[in-house]
Amino acid sequence: MSSTHPVQVIAVTGGKGGVGKSNVSINLSVCLAGMGRRVALLDADLGLANIDVLLGLRPKRNLEDVLAGECSLTDIMLTGPGGIRIIPASSGTQRMTMLGSMEHAGLIHAFSEISEQIDVLVIDTAAGISDSVISFVRASQEVLVVVCDEPSSITDAYALIKLLNKDYGVDRFRVIANMTRSTQEGRNLYNKLTQVTDRFLDVTLQYVGNIPFDESVRKAVQRQRPVVELSPRSKAALAYKQLAEKVDLWPLPSTPRGHLEFFVERLVQGVSGQQ
């Protein structure tokens, strides 16, 4: 049965590894849950899953088992901090690019089963610009690109935006600067990125703010807790709350793409096209 409940699907990506995508995904999810949204967080790094590690969770099953038809999506979902639901992934880097038609159908069915239970699906993509990253980002309604103050971060973010724009027609991106030393540094990072995108691409970038560098984040990672829970008054936690307030105002999709099974259909169509 098709769902009529709109679900906001947000891909958190960045091209480069080490920019803090998973931390952004976790803390944004917890903040949105604190505002009354029902949030699921999908670990879409199918080769090097790390959401469960960052939160000290020990999943018994994961997305691989759902794809194999051994259990439902509800069976593998874990309850994380703030009541967020976590969909764990596991090993198998090539898994998403080798799905058969039965697995495609099973994945669509699995996600449509949970669509009435959630309002937001946050997707923590893998690093790089692999086929699975492109598929997850293309299928999402909102693309949040995480950048930090390293030349390779801007270069890799641009490469990802260029590929998605030129080859797949994605033309709208939101940008968050992470681990910044000042508000101005975040704005400067965004300006560096728009200087090249404005010159060479037909895309719209929107700056959604910065997360300051904060020792509390490192401590939270060591304790396997979100910084917004462990140190709610820290600079980083307050910035995450501001980010969540902005995300909460993003318009909900009103088209069929707003329904979760359409997200998965787009996802698996993208994967099929890469086989």
TrEMBL record:
Gene3D superfamilies: P-loop containing nucleotide triphosphate hydrolases
GO cellular component: cytoplasmic side of plasma membrane; cytosol
One MF term in the entry's GO annotations: ATP hydrolysis activity
Coiled coil: none
Entry annotated with the keyword Ribonucleoprotein: no
Keywords: ATP-binding, Nucleotide-binding
Highest taxon of source: Bacteria
Entries under InterPro entries matching the protein: FlhG (IPR033875), MinD_FleN (IPR025501), P-loop_NTPase (IPR027417), ParA/MinD_ATPase (IPR050625), YlxH/NBP35 (IPR033756)
GO annotation (BP), single: negative regulation of cell division
Pfam family, one: ParA
SUPFAM superfamilies the record matches: P-loop containing nucleoside triphosphate hydrolases
Keyword Nucleotide-binding recorded: yes
UniProt name for this protein: Cobyrinic acid a,c-diamide synthase
Native species: Oceanicoccus sagamiensis
